[in-house]
Design goal:
Elements: H1 3-23, H2 29-55, H3 63-75, H4 87-118, H5 120-133, H6 142-149, H7 153-177, H8 181-189, H9 194-228, H10 237-246, H11 250-278
Helix pairs in contact: 3-11, 4-5, 4-7, 4-9, 4-10, 6-7, 7-9, 9-10, 9-11, 10-11
Length: about 290
C-alpha cells in the first residue's frame, strides 16, 4: 500500500502535463496566414523597386511614387489636381456598375442554368447558340453596346453583365446535371413534382456549383469594369485608368489597378463568407 503514492504521482504528473498540452493555446494561425500571404507582394514590390533603380527608366514609377499617388488619390493634399481625394467617388461609381451588371447576370444566369440542366430539350435548343456566343470577347461588344445603350453607364453595366453571365450560367447548369439521378427518383416517389422538385432537390444540390459561378462571375465583373468604363463615363476607376493613360501618368494607372484589385479581393472574400455560411451542410464545404 505504501507504493501507491509513488506510482500515482508520476501518473498524475503525466495526466496534468497532457491536459495542459491539450488546453494550451494553439499557435496564431491567422497571423501566420497573413504573413505567408504578404511574402510574395513584399518580394514583388522589392523587385519592382530594384529593377526601376537599375534600369533608370522613367516610364515605370518606383513603388514610393505610386504610394504617394495612392495617398493623394484617397486623401488629397499632395498634387491638388482633378484626381486628388476622389477615390471614394470613383470606387462608388464603379461598384454600382459592377454589382448592377453582376446582379443582372445572376438573375438571368441562375434560373436559365437550372432549366438548362434539368430540361434536355431546352438544352439541345440553346446550347449551340450559347457555345457560339460565349467565346466572343466582351471588348468586341463595345461598339454595339454604345449603339444599343449610348455613351454612359448603361453600356458599362451591359458589358459587365456579359462577362459575368456565362460563368454563372455554365456552373449552374453543371451543378444540376451533376446531381445524383436517384435523388430525383426518390423525390418523385414521395410525390415531389414541379416547383417543389426545383426548390427541394435541384436548387440545394446545385448550390455549391452556383456559388462557384457567382465567385467567378463577380471576379470577371471587376476585370471588365475598365472595358465597360471606356464608353465615355466621366467617373469610375476604369475612367481614371483611361485618363492616366491619356495623360501619360503611369502612377495614376497603377493606382487605379491597385484599387480595383483590392475592391475585387474584398468582394470575393464577402462572397466566400456567404458561401461558407450558407453551405455549412454541404459535403463540398470546407
Amino acid at each position: 500500500m505504501s507504493d501507491a503514492p509513488s506510482i500515482a504521482a508520476p501518473v498524475a504528473r503525466a495526466a496534468a502535463s497532457e491536459s495542459a498540452a491539450v488546453g494550451a493555446p494553439a499557435p496564431p494561425r491567422a497571423a501566420r496566414t497573413v504573413i505567408l500571404a504578404l511574402i510574395f507582394p513584399a518580394s514583388f514590390i522589392l523587385l519592382w523597386h530594384i529593377l526601376v533603380k537599375l534600369s533608370g527608366t522613367r516610364l515605370v514609377p518606383p513603388p514610393a511614387n505610386v504610394a504617394v499617388m495612392m495617398y493623394d488619390f484617397i486623401f488629397g493634399g499632395v498634387y491638388d489636381d482633378a484626381f486628388s481625394g476622389t477615390a471614394y467617388i470613383h470606387l462608388y461609381q464603379s461598384a454600382r456598375r459592377v454589382y448592377g451588371g453582376f446582379l443582372l447576370a445572376a438573375a438571368a444566369g441562375i434560373p436559365l442554368g437550372l432549366l438548362l440542366g434539368r430540361m434536355k430539350l431546352l438544352r439541345q435548343m440553346l446550347d449551340p447558340t450559347i457555345s457560339l456566343l460565349r467565346p466572343i470577347p466582351v471588348t468586341a461588344w463595345l461598339p454595339l453596346s454604345m449603339i444599343f445603350f449610348g455613351l454612359g453607364p448603361s453600356s458599362a453595366v451591359f458589358l459587365v453583365f456579359l462577362g459575368a453571365f456565362y460563368p454563372i450560367l455554365l456552373n449552374t447548369t453543371f451543378g444540376v446535371r451533376a446531381t445524383d439521378p436517384r435523388l430525383f427518383e426518390a423525390a418523385a416517389m414521395l410525390g415531389c413534382r414541379g416547383s417543389s422538385m426545383f426548390r427541394s432537390i435541384i436548387l440545394p444540390a446545385a448550390l455549391p456549383s452556383i456559388f462557384n459561378g457567382l465567385r467567378l462571375g463577380l471576379g470577371f465583373a471587376w476585370v471588365l469594369i475598365v472595358v465597360g468604363e471606356m464608353t465615355g463615363v466621366p467617373q469610375g476607376l476604369g475612367a481614371v485608368i483611361m485618363d492616366g493613360r491619356t495623360l501619360s501618368r503611369t502612377d495614376l494607372v497603377i493606382t487605379g489597378m491597385i484599387v480595383i484589385g483590392v475592391a475585387g479581393f474584398l468582394s470575393d472574400r464577402l462572397m466566400l463568407a456567404l458561401n461558407n455560411r450558407l453551405l455549412r451542410w454541404s459535403p463540398q464545404h470546407g
